[in-house]
Every structure is written in structure tokens, then in C-alpha cells.
């Protein structure tokens, strides 16, 4: 019977190895048994070193220690395949060469230590208690109210992009925006950065100078998506547009009766008119004559055109709208409608009221633009408004309602900055104990004359007593208006008309400028019923003091600020009250 060999520790084995034993393979080539012994002894020493360092946490690493006994680590940091232990007595380990003593003092492989440190961190994390969820009511029925490591979403940085926006005076600002930012959000950001009054009339304009086109972005459109369809010469403008949603307030002024037809009976009311446009199942139609430019040619033809939900069509036979006589001019789905900036000069348009349907894929090719021209501004506004309503429908109404709902929610908690353009100003009589609204026009005009005389007496009294200003009162009255936003200095009549058209042809939109014919006079440019009118403000003298008047001296004002304040309250000789003023903001 073979005697069982005693079991020694690895240290005892090394001590009992004869020192005089020679390596049969020679001094330079170790045998296979030597190499295995090297691996096993290195692993055992490394485990002992780690156990000594983590003696205080020995209870947490019992499983790890058992695994390291059965699955030793090799020099490359990988686990060796586990060998099944024999049920019988263990055999004696092969004898180890003396050079193993030198290898025991060699540096430990860093890769194996790093692997142990990673496992150590894993065990530390798993041994920590679970973090209770501070908001258990937000958990679903299937999810536990405890935050597990995999329950938190990975943090991903939102995509950002720089957008350059220009103002009317040529200044610009580079703004960093998110990829999902809408035109309304960017306008509110620019209003905040420019310290403007947010009256929900600011808009972002897509401007193409090389094509002579521009349009106002809808509030829901994504800025980054629109910029991807623009050429390098194109840019964004930050501008006022009071007429953006004016058709919701008074649609009858935007859609003349002779231009609108319906497939079903309509009672002709304003609410019914808008419902027919917003309802996708209805079939409204805009019809009329337009000048149409032929593709690839310079000639224009006057054709009978109709706009439907399916697209823009022209009739090849008079005013016939039979399907065999209708020819598709443009599609509404992948296109946007623009207004022509200089149609006469750039495209030889017959009038100044041009519009264009531009496909989104077109960037620099003017030959693929569908150019149209209307007879007057009201007709062009009708076509462009109908195009927006038929394309976007309820989205436009939601864009119109969102600022009003937000204002209603914030009104009990905050008092917004008062803006004349947001309020309906009326003539008031405060002669009694309580104020009352003057509804009689004759009485309002009489009150205006009395107020004008009171201002004149007050100004005369101030002139007699002396002014605290370093400037003389007469000098101050001639320059104080230059600090106001509604005064635009020395601009031409054509430029003033262009500014009013850009900021919306709504009743009461105005600006003041220097007169070109009289260097001492000024001009009030006012919009009424989508028509622009000019009123000259002449200086007049009374008792050696200079006044300004619109009605040949019947109502006099010491400066232009008093004149504007008065006509914001009273119509007087004007066709309507002053309501909105044209403004230019430097970014």
C-alpha cells in the first residue's frame, strides 16, 4: 500500500527544495514544470498580499477568497480554468528551481492588481444599502420605490447650435440654442437679452437677399430645421410684426367676400369664416386674378388662380374651374409662401405687391420659384393669409392662443410693463368726482381742445418761472422726441412705408420722421385699413413760444411727445388713434 504523502504549504515546499539540484533543461531554458510552479507561486503570494491589505474587510471578501483559491489569476490578469480537485490524497508538487526565490521578490503585475481593485469596488457598491426613492408616488405599479443602479437614465448632453440673428439696423447677435428650440422661444430669448417689452408681436424673419424674398417664421417652427434649408447668403432678422395674428381678430378685413367660396353653405359670420379654414374637412377656396411669371422666362401672364388645400391652380380657359381646365402651379405641403422685397427691380414684376411660393429644396435657383403678383396690398395679404391657414390650420390658432393663456395665468401674480400697443385707450373726463368714458365724438373733440389749451398754459407758466433743465425750453422741445422709439429721424417716405409694411399693416401702426420738404416740420406716417397715409406736423409760434400742430394750429403741443400721447387717447383729425409704433432694436 502506497503511503500518503504529507501536505505542505507553499512556503514549506520552497524551503525543502534542494539547493544543489540542477535544471535538466539547462541554465537558460526553464522546464514546463518550472513555469507552472512560477505561476502558481506568484498567484498564491499575490492573494496573500491582498488579504493582508484588506484584513479589516475579510468578511466581505470570503466569496472572493474562495474563488481565488480555486481559480488563480495568471500573469495577464485572466482567471485560469478551474481544475477539479482529486478526491484522494494530493500528490507532491514538483520540485522548484532556486531562481524562484529571485522571482518572489519581483514586482507584482499591475494588470492583476487593477483587476482586484475593480472587483473590490464592485463588492463595495453591492454591499451598500439601497437608496430610498424620495418620490415614491411617481413610481409605476410595477417599479419598486427604490432607486436601483440601472433605473437612472444615462446623462446625455442636448445638442446645441449657434445661430446668428440680425436686427433692422444691421447689428447682430450670436445665440446658442438647443436643437428643439422654436421660433417663439428664440424671440423670447432675444427680447430678454435686448431688454424689450414682450407684447407677443416679435417675430423671426427668414430673409433671402439674393432671391429678394422674406417671410415670418411661424411660432411652432424649429429654428435649426429652417436654417438647414437656407443658403449661406440667407439670414435671420429680429423684427416686430403686429399683423401676425390680426386675421383672428377681424377676419372680414382679410378675406373679401368676392375672393372666398365654400363647398358648403356658410352664414358669412366671422366665427364661421375661421372655422371653415381651421376645419380640415371643409373645402374653402380663394379665387381671383394674379400675375403669374412663367418658369424660366421673364414674361408675366394674368391668369385666373384658385387656392385649395391640395395646392395652387390656374385656369387654362378663362375663369373656368373644371378639373380639365385646372393646372397645378405649386404644392402647399413642401413649400412656404414669401413676399417679394424688390419685385419690380429683380423680377420685372408688374406691381409692388409680389409674393412667391418657394419649395423647401430650393436654395439659390430662382428659376424654380413660383412668382406671383397681386394688384393691391389687400389682395396679396388675403392670398398669403389663406396659404398659412390652409397649410397649418389649428397650429396657427394654438400659436395665437398660447400667449393669451399665459398672460391670463400670470396676471394675478405679476404686473407686466404697460404697453400702449396692448391696451385700448379712450378719452376720459375727470372733471367730476369719478372718471367717465367720453363716448360722444363731438364731446371728445371739445375735451381735446381744452386739454390742448391747458397744456399750452402749463408750458407757458413753466417758461415764465424758469426751467431746471440746462437746455432752453424751446431747444429742449425740438430734440426731446429723438429719444423715443417711434421717431426714426431723416428717412424717406419710401423707407417709412417699407418699415410699416414689414411690421404689419394694422390700424394704428405709426412712426414719426423728419420732413424732407420742410426742414422745420415733421411727418406722421400712419396705417389705416391697410393703406399708409402721411400727415405733416408744422411748427407754429404763439407768444414767442414754438408749438407743434397737426390741424393748422387748432390743437397745439409744446413737443412731439405730448402730441403722440394726445392722439393715442383721441382720434382728432386722424382716421384712427395711434396704437402701435414701429420700433427698431439694436441687438
Automatic annotation (TrEMBL):
Q: Which organism is it from?
A: Cercocebus atys (Sooty mangabey)
Q: Where is the composition biased (Low complexity)?
A: 89-104
Q: Where in the cell is it found?
A: Cytoplasm
SH2 domain: from which residue to which, for each copy? 486-582
Biological process terms from the Gene Ontology for this record are:
insulin receptor signaling pathway; negative regulation of insulin receptor signaling pathway; negative regulation of Wnt signaling pathway
Q: Where does this protein have compositionally biased stretches of type Polar residues? A: 76-85
Residue spans crossing the bilayer: none
- InterPro entries associated with the record: BPS-dom (IPR015042), GRB/APBB1IP (IPR039664), Grb10_SH2 (IPR035037), PH-like_dom_sf (IPR011993), PH_APBB1IP (IPR039665), PH_domain (IPR001849), RA_dom (IPR000159), SH2 (IPR000980)
Which part of the chain is the Ras-associating domain? 159-243
Q: What is the lineage of its organism?
A: Eukaryota, Metazoa, Chordata, Craniata, Vertebrata
- Name of the encoding gene: GRB10
Q: Which UniProt keywords apply?
A: Cytoplasm, Phosphoprotein, SH2 domain
Residues covered by region (Disordered): 1-34, 76-104
Instruction: Specify the PH domain's residue ranges.
Output: 283-392
A Pfam family it matches:
RA_2
Question: Hey, which family's this protein in?
Answer: Belongs to the GRB7/10/14 family.
* Any one GO cellular component localisation term in the record: cytoplasm
PROSITE patterns per the UniProt record, alphabetical: PH_DOMAIN, RA, SH2
- Which GO MF terms does the UniProt record name? insulin receptor binding
Designated name of the protein = Growth factor receptor bound protein 10
Amino acid at each position: 500500500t502506497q503511503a500518503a504523502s504529507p501536505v505542505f504549504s507553499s512556503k514549506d515546499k520552497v524551503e525543502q527544495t534542494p539547493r544543489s539540484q540542477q535544471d535538466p533543461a539547462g541554465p537558460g531554458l526553464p522546464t514546463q514544470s518550472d513555469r507552472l510552479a512560477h505561476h502558481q507561486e506568484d498567484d498564491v503570494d499575490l492573494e496573500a498580499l491582498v488579504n493582508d491589505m484588506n484584513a479589516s474587510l475579510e468578511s466581505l471578501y470570503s466569496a472572493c477568497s474562495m474563488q481565488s483559491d480555486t481559480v488563480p489569476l495568471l500573469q495577464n490578469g485572466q482567471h485560469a480554468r478551474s481544475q477539479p480537485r482529486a478526491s484522494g490524497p494530493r500528490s507532491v508538487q514538483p520540485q522548484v528551481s532556486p531562481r524562484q526565490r529571485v522571482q518572489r521578490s519581483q514586482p507584482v503585475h499591475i494588470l492583476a492588481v487593477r483587476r482586484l481593485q475593480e472587483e473590490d469596488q464592485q463588492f463595495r457598491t453591492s454591499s451598500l444599502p439601497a437608496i430610498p426613492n424620495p418620490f415614491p408616488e411617481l413610481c409605476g405599479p410595477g417599479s419598486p420605490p427604490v432607486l436601483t443602479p440601472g433605473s437612472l437614465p444615462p446623462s446625455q448632453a442636448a445638442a446645441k447650435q449657434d445661430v446668428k440673428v440680425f436686427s433692422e439696423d444691421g447689428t447682430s447677435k450670436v445665440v446658442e440654442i438647443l436643437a428643439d428650440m422654436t421660433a417663439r422661444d428664440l424671440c423670447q430669448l432675444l427680447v430678454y437679452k435686448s431688454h424689450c417689452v414682450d407684447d407677443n408681436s416679435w417675430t423671426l424673419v427668414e430673409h433671402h437677399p439674393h432671391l429678394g424674398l422674406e417671410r415670418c417664421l411661424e411660432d411652432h417652427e424649429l429654428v435649426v430645421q429652417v436654417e438647414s434649408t437656407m443658403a449661406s447668403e440667407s439670414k435671420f432678422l429680429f423684427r416686430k410684426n403686429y399683423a401676425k395674428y390680426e386675421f383672428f381678430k377681424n377676419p372680414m378685413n382679410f378675406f373679401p367676400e368676392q375672393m372666398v367660396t365654400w363647398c358648403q353653405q356658410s352664414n358669412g359670420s366671422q366665427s364661421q369664416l375661421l372655422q371653415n379654414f381651421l376645419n380640415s374637412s371643409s373645402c374653402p377656396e380663394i379665387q381671383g386674378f394674379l400675375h403669374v411669371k412663367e418658369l424660366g422666362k421673364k414674361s408675366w401672364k394674368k391668369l385666373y388662380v384658385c387656392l385649395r388645400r391640395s395646392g395652387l391652380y390656374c385656369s387654362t380657359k378663362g375663369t373656368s374651374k373644371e378639373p380639365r381646365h385646372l393646372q397645378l402651379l405649386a404644392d402647399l405641403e413642401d413649400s412656404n409662401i414669401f413676399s417679394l422685397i424688390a419685385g419690380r427691380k429683380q423680377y420685372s414684376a408688374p406691381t409692388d405687391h409680389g409674393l412667391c411660393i418657394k419649395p423647401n429644396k430650393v436654395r439659390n435657383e430662382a428659376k424654380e420659384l413660383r412668382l406671383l403678383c397681386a394688384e393691391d396690398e389687400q389682395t396679396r395679404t388675403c392670398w398669403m393669409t389663406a396659404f398659412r391657414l390652409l397649410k397649418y390650420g389649428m397650429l396657427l390658432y394654438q400659436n395665437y392662443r398660447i400667449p393669451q393663456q399665459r398672460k391670463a395665468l400670470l396676471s394675478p401674480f405679476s404686473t407686466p410693463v404697460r404697453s400702449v400697443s396692448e391696451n385700448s385707450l379712450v378719452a376720459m373726463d375727470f372733471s367730476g368726482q369719478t372718471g367717465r368714458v367720453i363716448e360722444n365724438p363731438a364731446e371728445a373733440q371739445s375735451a381735446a381742445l381744452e386739454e390742448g389749451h391747458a397744456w399750452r398754459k402749463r408750458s407757458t407758466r413753466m417758461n415764465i418761472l424758469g426751467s431746471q433743465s440746462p437746455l432752453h425750453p424751446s431747444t429742449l422741445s425740438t430734440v426731446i422726441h429723438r429719444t423715443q422709439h417711434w421717431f426714426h429721424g431723416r428717412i424717406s417716405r419710401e423707407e417709412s412705408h417699407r418699415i410699416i409694411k414689414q411690421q404689419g399693416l394694422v390700424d394704428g401702426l405709426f412712426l414719426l420722421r423728419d420732413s424732407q420738404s420742410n426742414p422745420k416740420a415733421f411727418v406722421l406716417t400712419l396705417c389705416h385699413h391697410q393703406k399708409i397715409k402721411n400727415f405733416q406736423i408744422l411748427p407754429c409760434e404763439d407768444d414767442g413760444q414754438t408749438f407743434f400742430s397737426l390741424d393748422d394750429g387748432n390743437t397745439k403741443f409744446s413737443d412731439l411727445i405730448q402730441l403722440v400721447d394726445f392722439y393715442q387717447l383721441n382720434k382728432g383729425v386722424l382716421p384712427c388713434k395711434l396704437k402701435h409704433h414701429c420700433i427698431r432694436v439694436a441687438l
